[in-house]
Design goal:
The chain has 323 residues and is of the alpha+beta class. It has 3 domains: 7-108, no CATH class; 111-240, Jelly Rolls; 249-322, Phage tail protein beta-alpha-beta fold, CATH 3.55.50. Helix content is 36%, strand content 30%. Strands 1, 2, 3, 4, 5, 6, 7, 8, 9, 10, 11, 12 and 13 form a 13-stranded mixed beta sheet that branches. Strands 15-18-17 form a 3-stranded mixed beta sheet, covered by helices on one side. A hairpin with a 4-residue loop joins strand 17 and strand 18. Helix 1 (7-14) crosses helix 3 (34-61) and helix 2 packs across helix 3.
C-alpha cells in the first residue's frame, strides 16, 4: 500500500531533501489522480510564499526603528495595510509562478511505471485515459499533458482506453512503430527483446507508422491487427476480444511458436525458463486457453502433453527446467 503524501513530505521534495524512494513515490502519486496534482500545486504555492516572503517579513519588522505616540500608531497601521497588500499581490504572483513551474515540470519530467513479472497493473493518465499494463510492461508518460499532442512510450504489452480529444492526438511510441489515435480502444505489444510488435484495434480508428519510415503506415478498422513482418506492415482480420484475453487472466497458447510462448510464461508467472536440450521443443496447437490462476505447474504439464519435453520446477529459485 502506498504511503500517504503529506505536506511535510512534499516540502522535503521541494527542498531537494527527499530520498529516491520518496521521489519515485511522489512521481507515481502525481500520475494517479488530478486531485493529487491540485494538492501538489497548492503545497508548492505555499512553499514558495514561505521561502520567498517569510524571511523578508522579519526584516521589515526590524527596519522601522523606534517611534512614539500617534506617529507610531499611523506607521503601524500603514505597515499593516502595505504588508496585507504585499502579501495578497505576492501570493497571486507566487501562485501563478508556482503553477507555471509545476505544469512545466509535470510536462517535462516523465513518470515511469514498470510492472513486475507475474503481475498486471491498471492506471489512469492525466487526461482520463486508462491503461491496462501486462506483466513486464513499462510505460513512460508525463504526469500532465500539455501542448498539441499526448505522447507516451511503451515497452511490453498494454491495452489503452483513450479519452477522446480531437484537438490533441494521442500517440503510443514504441521501439518499432508509432500508434496515433484520437479516441479509441486498442492493444499494443512491443517487445524489443524478441523483436515482436503488433497493434490490435478494439474500437475506433488508429494509424500505425513505422519508426524507420513514417511514410509506411496503415489505418486500422476494429477487429484488425497489424504486425511487422520482413520489415513491412502486415494487416490481418482477428477477433479483437481474443487478442486481449490476458486482461481477464487467460493465457492463449494457440498459434504461438514455442519461444514466444516461453517468453509469455516468464512474464506472466515471474519465472526463468531454462531449456536444457539441444533442440527447441515444438508445439502444434491451433487453439487453447489456460487460466493463469491455475499456476505454473498446470500450464507446464499441459504443454508437456502437447509437445515432447519433460520439466521440473525449482520453487526455491523460481526456475523452470525443460529437458
Amino acid at each position: 500500500m502506498q504511503q500517504e503524501i503529506t505536506k511535510d513530505r512534499l516540502f522535503r521534495y521541494f527542498r531537494g531533501e527527499a530520498s529516491r524512494a520518496e521521489v519515485a513515490m511522489i512521481d507515481l502519486w502525481l500520475g494517479e489522480d488530478a486531485a493529487h496534482r491540485r494538492q501538489y500545486k497548492a503545497a508548492r504555492a505555499e512553499f514558495e510564499m514561505l521561502m520567498m516572503y517569510g524571511d523578508s517579513a522579519v526584516v521589515k519588522d526590524g527596519a522601522y526603528g523606534k517611534a512614539s505616540g500617534r506617529k507610531k500608531t499611523v506607521r503601524i497601521a500603514l505597515r499593516v495595510v502595505l504588508n496585507a497588500a504585499a502579501v495578497a499581490a505576492f501570493f497571486l504572483a507566487a501562485s501563478w509562478a508556482a503553477e507555471y513551474r509545476v505544469d512545466r515540470r509535470l510536462e517535462t519530467e516523465p513518470v515511469s511505471v514498470s510492472v513486475p513479472a507475474g503481475q498486471r497493473m491498471n492506471l489512469t493518465l492525466a487526461d482520463g485515459t486508462s491503461v491496462e499494463l501486462n506483466a513486464g510492461a513499462r510505460l513512460v508518460y508525463p504526469a500532465l499533458f500539455k501542448g498539441k499532442e499526448r505522447n507516451v512510450h511503451l515497452e511490453g504489452e498494454a491495452v489503452f482506453h483513450v479519452t477522446h480529444d480531437e484537438s490533441r492526438p494521442f500517440n503510443v511510441n514504441t521501439y518499432a512503430a508509432r500508434v496515433q489515435v484520437l479516441g479509441t480502444d486498442f492493444n499494443v505489444l512491443a517487445d524489443s527483446e524478441t523483436g515482436e510488435f503488433s497493434t490490435t484495434l478494439i474500437d475506433g480508428r488508429v494509424k500505425v507508422s513505422k519508426n524507420d519510415d513514417a511514410a509506411v503506415s496503415v489505418t486500422l478498422q476494429p477487429d484488425q491487427k497489424v504486425s511487422i513482418m520482413g520489415g513491412k506492415l502486415y494487416v490481418e482480420s482477428v477477433a479483437a476480444s481474443e487478442e486481449v484475453l490476458w486482461t481477464e487472466g487467460i493465457l492463449d497458447i494457440g498459434k504461438m511458436d514455442f519461444w514466444r510462448l516461453i517468453r509469455q510464461i516468464e512474464r506472466t508467472y515471474g519465472v526463468d525458463v531454462i531449456i536444457e536440450r539441444q533442440e527447441m521443443p515444438s508445439i502444434d496447437c491451433t487453439s487453447g486457453k489456460i487460466r493463469v490462476a491455475e499456476g505454473i505447474d498446470h500450464i507446464m504439464h499441459v504443454l508437456s502433453l502437447l509437445s515432447d519435453f519433460t520439466y521440473s520446477i525449482d520453487t526455491r529459485t523460481g526456475t523452470v527446467y525443460i529437458r
